[in-house]
Design goal:
The protein is an alpha/beta fold and about 325 residues long. It is about 15% helix and about 25% strand.
């Protein structure tokens, strides 16, 4: 079902350049757009694709407006990527999927669980006793919400998510591991989204907490008693060990690791595959990879690595002195 360009612009509150009643039948990438499609460009590095753009309309910044073919209708905005996100939300509302029952017949919900009246629960999901789930939350297929989990409003749990399984707690006694019963719970704030097959473990005592607006990708492991501040985002395969505390508005690239009991400040951005081995006290971008080795060698090499800058300066100084002595 086509939507008029003027309707889209009404949602995005941009400046419309072109035919207001232009019918838009789909959203597509710059490369794949055809007649009737709308796309977006958010960065100058993709400017070279504009000359071959085959779509009918484009969301664009004022800075790139002049590079678009004249026959293409425009919605000019300050932040095209944000506008694109809002466009996808509008498109989903305008083209709703067929709705079945809110609670799928195959879902298992304990009588002592509490769900707001509009919570959606997908096939083969399980909600255990004492769980409390707020309004507008969508629990998709094969999700398990364990006992006593507290979940805010408008959360989204993708297929395979497990919230509230036991944390990894064992005490070593002689040659055996003795289980530490995990007596806490998990608390999710409002607007939290958990990707497919992500696991958030219940606390040993107290709560594992993901604050409002936290966004987690697929295959992420959140250990027991972890605290993640508001609007932090983690890409796929991130692992956060037990009792780590992560601040607000942080980002973690795919495969990044945070060791247990560490603290990460607000507005920290950790590059993909980096390992956070000590607390981070200041905002900024952090990266770090180091080859696997036996621990004794690794510690020696790591200590030497931290001195590389000072060694470099000493070598430069020695070279300068040598050159002065060698010159006639």
């Amino acid at each position: 079902m086509a939507v008029l360009l003027s309707q889209i612009n009404g949602e995005l509150n941009g400046k419309l350049v072109g035919q207001p009643d232009l019918p838009i039948s789909g959203i597509a990438s710059l490369k794949e757009a055809t007649k009737g499609c709308i796309s977006f460009i958010s960065h100058g590095r993709y400017q070279h694709l504009l000359k071959d753009f085959k779509g009918s309309a484009l969301i664009v910044s004022e800075a790139l407006q002049g590079f678009v073919p004249p026959e293409v209708a425009l919605i000019v905005v300050d932040d095209p990527y944000w506008a694109y996100a809002r466009l996808t939300q509008f498109w989903r509302r305008a083209h709703p999927r067929p709705q079945g029952p809110l609670i799928h017949p195959s879902a298992v919900i304990h009588p002592d669980a509490w769900l707001d009246s509009d919570v959606e629960v997908g096939p083969l999901s399980v909600i255990e006793a004492g769980a409390r789930i707020g309004a507008g939350t969508r629990i998709l297929a094969r999700v398990t919400v364990m006992a006593d989990v507290i979940m805010g409003k408008r959360c989204v749990l993708h297929p395979g998510v497990v919230v509230g399984a036991d944390g990894f707690g064992f005490a070593q006694h002689e040659s055996e591991w003795v289980k530490i019963e995990q007596l806490g719970n998990v608390v999710l704030g409002n607007d939290v989204e958990l990707g497919a097959n992500t696991c958030v473990d219940r606390a040993a005592l107290g709560s594992t907490t993901l604050c409002d607006g936290v966004k987690i990708d697929n295959l992420v492991q959140i250990g027991h008693n972890v605290h993640i501040g508001p609007h932090t985002a983690m890409a796929g395969c991130v692992g956060v060990a037990g009792s780590a505390r992560i601040g607000a508005r942080c980002t973690f690239g795919g495969g990044a690791i945070v060791l247990g009991h560490l603290e990460v400040a607000d507005d920290v951005h950790v590059s993909a595959a980096s390992v956070v081995t000590k607390s981070i006290k200041s905002a900024g971008q952090y990266s770090g990879l180091f080859p696997l080795d036996d621990n004794q060698s690794w510690e020696k090499n790591a200590a030497s690595l931290k001195q590389l800058h000072a060694l470099r300066e000493r070598i430069k100084s020695l070279e300068s002195q040598f050159q002065k002595k060698a010159s006639p």
